[in-house]
Amino acid sequence: MTEASVLFLRACLALLAMPIYLLSFLGIWEPFCRKIFFPYFLEKFSAVHERKTKKQKQELFRNLPDFTSPSGELKLLEIGTGCGANFQFYPPGCKVTCTDINPNFQRGLSRSMNKNQHVHYEHFLVAAGEDLHQVPSGSVDAVICTLVLCSVHSVNGTLKEVLRVLRPGGAFYFLEHVAADHSSWKYFWQQICYPTWKLVFDGCCLTREIWKNLEQANFSELKLQHISVALPWTPIQPHIIGYAVK
């Protein structure tokens, strides 16, 4: 598993994906990806990922009502809402603010909203995880972020914003794919796929060790578990799941 073999196999993969690299060079791929391909792909992938992680998500979000504010309201902020795959797990009557950097998920998002009318949808903000300035400090009880920290520009910047918008005692819930163990074949293939995967899937990074960012952030409590999600023939099987308290 030498660096030379990684570079050689990366080049082979890039050759296979040459039409996409060419479209990217011409400035065509990125707008097409963000507007058409990625929203379509994410809706289909979310359905598969949902089936594989439903039990883990039910367990993860089970204690969301524990973070209801003293006023009796439960205000949630979701970073990178996408097609709204998490709505079904939210407690009845909670108030959700949805954010995403890509505004092109409306079709899938509308379907999820119509299916999950037990939730009150307050706002949809076009915003990056690192810049949630439209959300007042200390104004939400819980922040949810699933399969998003792989593609933000700065994981630390996003976690800083999470801590800012959470009220004291509020919680941050996460489920993210991460780098595999460095001595494993999975990590070897993650390194090979990395550049092409990032281009094709709108900036998704395969080798982030997001648990380290969470451990170094200023949370008072961190419940984190490493799990493997059964997604055969993909480089995104290793995941972390859990929540952290401000």
TrEMBL record:
PANTHER family per the UniProt record, alphabetical: METHYLTRANSFERASE LIKE 7A (PTHR45036:SF1), METHYLTRANSFERASE LIKE 7B (PTHR45036)
UniProt entry keywords in alphabetical sequence: Membrane, Methyltransferase, Transferase, Transmembrane, Transmembrane helix
KW Transmembrane (keyword) present: yes
GO biological process: methylation
Protein name (Swiss-Prot/TrEMBL): Methyltransferase-like protein 7A
Residue span(s) of domain Methyltransferase type: 77-174
Keyword DNA-binding: no
Domain of life: Eukaryota
MF terms (GO), sorted A to Z: S-adenosylmethionine-dependent methyltransferase activity
Residues spanning the membrane: 7-29
